[in-house]
Each structure stands twice: as structure tokens, then as C-alpha cells.
Write a structure and sequence with these properties.
- It is a single chain.
- The chain is mainly beta and about 240 residues long.
- It has a single domain, classed as YmcC-like fold.
- It is about 5% helix and about 50% strand.
- It contains 1 helix and 12 strands; from the N terminus they run E-E-E-H-E-E-E-E-E-E-E-E-E.
- It is globular and about 55 Å long.
- The chain starts with 11 loop residues before the first strand and ends in a 9-residue tail after the last strand.
């Protein structure tokens, strides 16, 4: 299975620019996220494991977590660290691991969902059904979010539609023939969230633009791909 991986090949490292805009319209953070595939199975053996490195800037301390229980815990520890005069940055996640499905039929990943990106749990996950990659192609997914997510608990039903084929040029990455896919998710209690993204056959989800149920906006843009070994092509 490892030798067949193209997007999440262990010889690739992806760097994304991440921008988080609060529902009041103010930009809270602009930072980089680095994705390092391992080529190894994740917890579920059908998924391949990758690490996510968050270079979170200090404005994260002002983030208001939309999950009730986590927000209360966050505020509690923020006060404790402030009182002790200690660095609160130890509280946020700097590295985590998660999984992706990469096969001849689909590409699917758990989204970046640590720190302020917790919102992505209720938006359409990055997902492509390869047989449907033509203009007008569509597919659907459903996700049950369990009790541990507090007020995020519920059912998320997502609809995906392929809109057009377009090129991508941002940062150090120039790619031809990406697919523009618009996805809409409806959460059983929170309402509608969107994820409009670009997919490329060799580099996966190169761009995501999420508009969340409460007006929060998150964007991820691929700005660099690094390689080791000679078996992986450079962006073109």
C-alpha cells in the first residue's frame, strides 16, 4: 500500500498558509501548517498516517472556542497560566497525527482540526470520489459526531459538486488542471457550513476556503512542496 501512495507519499512535505477570520470579520491568525506523510498505517489500517505541525501565532490566545466544554477549560487554564506568569503557548497543539484514505477510488482526509481549526469538524471534509471527477459530478457523505464533541454532537450531511477545471498558482506552487469542488454540509443543530476546495491528482487538496455556520472563515493554501528522494515529481 505504501508504494502506491502518490499524494501522501512519505517523500513529500507540504506547507500551507492558514488564515483564520473571526465571525466579526477580523483576522485572528495568519500562520503556516506543515503536513508530513509517514507512509505508515494510521489507527484504522485502511488509512495512511500523517503528522500536522502547527506554527500557531500568539493571537491564538484570543480564540473563542465554539465547543462549550472546551471553551470553559481553555479559559480556566488561561487564567491559571496568566496568574503564574507562565507561557500560555504550552496549552495549544503544536503537533498531531491523523489519517487519510488514498486509493484508486477516492482521496479523503481528516481535516486540520486542532486549535482554532476545530470548526472544520462540522464542515465538509476534504473528499474526492475519483470516478466522479468531471464537471457536474457529485457525491455525498454523512458523519456522526459523538458526545465527546459537546455541542458539536450531531449528524453532518455533506454534498459535493465538481464545478470546473482550473490552474493553481500561489507561493512556490504552480499546478495545471486542478478540480474546483464546492461542498455544503448541514449539521443537525448548527446549520450550514461550506468548503470550496481545489484538488490536484498529485498534490491533493491544494486549497480550501471554509465558511462556517456562524460566519467564521478559514482558508488553507498550499505554498510549498518539499521532496526527498528521486521518486516524486516536482510541482508543475
Amino acid at each position: 500500500m505504501n508504494d502506491a501512495l502518490i499524494v501522501y507519499n512519505k517523500n513529500k512535505t507540504y506547507t500551507y498558509e492558514a488564515i483564520f477570520v473571526q465571525k466579526d470579520g477580523d483576522t485572528l491568525t495568519t500562520e503556516n501548517i506543515v503536513v508530513q506523510p509517514t507512509g505508515e498505517p494510521w489507527v484504522q489500517k485502511t488509512q495512511t498516517k500523517f503528522y500536522i505541525h502547527y506554527n500557531t501565532d500568539s493571537n491564538f490566545i484570543h480564540f473563542v472556542n465554539p465547543i462549550n466544554a472546551r471553551r470553559k477549560k481553555f479559559e480556566k487554564y488561561k487564567k491559571i497560566y496568566k496568574k503564574k506568569g507562565e507561557d500560555f503557548s504550552v496549552w495549544w497543539t503544536k503537533k498531531s497525527s491523523t489519517g487519510a484514505i488514498e486509493s484508486s477510488k477516492e482521496l479523503w482526509i481528516h481535516p486540520f482540526r486542532d486549535n482554532q481549526y476545530v470548526y472544520t469538524e462540522v464542515a465538509p471534509f476534504p473528499c474526492v470520489e475519483l470516478d466522479s471527477l468531471n464537471i457536474g459530478g457529485n457525491w455525498h457523505s454523512s458523519l456522526e459526531i459523538m458526545l465527546g464533541w459537546d455541542n458539536f454532537k450531531g449528524t453532518v450531511k455533506s454534498d459535493y459538486t465538481v464545478v470546473k477545471n482550473e490552474d493553481y498558482n500561489y507561493g512556490d506552487v504552480v499546478l495545471d488542471s486542478c478540480w474546483r469542488i464546492n461542498a455544503i454540509a448541514n449539521h443537525s443543530t448548527l446549520g450550514e457550513s461550506k468548503n470550496n476546495f481545489l484538488y490536484h491528482s498529485e498534490y491533493g487538496f491544494v486549497q480550501q476556503h471554509l465558511t462556517l455556520y456562524d460566519g467564521t472563515i478559514i482558508s488553507f493554501k498550499l505554498i510549498k512542496v518539499e521532496f526527498k528522494g528521486d521518486s516524486v515529481p516536482v510541482p508543475h
